[in-house]
# Entry
Amino acid sequence: MSNSPLALRRLALAVLAALTMSGCATYDGLSERQKGTATGAGIGAVTGAVIGSATGGRAGTGALIGGAIGAVAGNLWSKRMEDKRAAMERATAGTGIEVQRTADNQLKVNVPSDLSFDLNSVSLKPELRPVLEQFAQGLDTTMQVRIIGHTDSSGSDAINNPLSLQRAQTVRDFLSTHGVPAQRMAIEGRGSREPVAENTSEAGRARNRRVEILLSEPQA
# Structure
């Protein structure tokens, strides 16, 4: 194969597309953090090889440098975030609460209505308290928390919008009493504007009545 800059650029584009679509490997047995590192390293290596060759350097050296840089860039999901995700999954196993890593490297905890609030209520259900206590454990003062309240489409916006915000406030206040700095928490109430299910059945409405808690690390 030719080592010309044009040929290497074409190779980089092809490999980059494959890495983006397939995740670079099967990743069986790897943690979320390891997956990010591996993908970043692969993309960085190809990019580094192209840069090294195009600028007159050795493609192999460029690949090594690019791989190291890519590994750091891909490892945006830190050990702290991975540890918190694992702890939350253990704490919520079998409850119906969803714990997941988002595409932008936040930890998202989705709490459905049967574990968060009674209909038209802003008081925490007892079942949610130990979950929030686990969430609060181990958070240092740099981590950012965003709490978003949602309702179903029953009732008007005049009712749903403040209700969703008040529920987010209740969660924030509870976390604050358990050591999470209030200045690190933001709250939103989105009423019924972002349903995750249809509102034509009780099961669907119950899914839409929820609280989402998102944890992220500060941007460098």
